[in-house]
Design brief:
Blueprint lengths: L2 H21 L4 H20 L3 H24 L4 H25 L4 H28 L21 H13 L4 H29 L1
Amino acid sequence: MLDPILRRWVDPPLDHAGAWLAARGASANVITVTGLAAGLVAVPLLAFEHYGMALVAIALNRLLDGLDGVVARHTRSSPYGGYLDIFCDMVFYAAVPLGFALARPENAVWAALLLASFVCTCASFLGRAVLAAGRGEGDTGRRGRKSFFHAAGLMEGTETILAFILFCLFPDLFAWLASLVAALCFWTAAARLIETRSADSES
């Protein structure tokens, strides 16, 4: 929901940084994998309750995730690059709740609920992209230039990162925050399902 608003602020500096990296031979796929590695560092940091350092790892992951697409556009984008990017995003999103589950036993149930909700949003997101590709639908570009169709929703990338930030800043409230985020994710998945069914009926 907030992704188009955030893009207005972050796209210009990211484009400058990405152009600078591309001119020096940076590889978009290497940046993608490096970003995933940075994000996975958050798991042991969370497990040992180093929440501030984990937040730095999460922020670095998101920065590199923003840069890889820009570098690809300034060099040579490919379908595989888009696939690798979304794959690494999904792995990262799943890894963070795992870190909180490892930190405290009482977090485990809520982390599992959060992971289940992420599976639903991911399935609704990727399934909608497959359907859009079959119909020949193009992406609107409101969330930046993408390699495939991006379905809108209440919980998208920006909202998920805001949730991760809140988890790190207020770890004692993880159960309440995770249950709220999970509810919003389930809502998002259901709304996408309904929207996709309506679009299919009209086509």
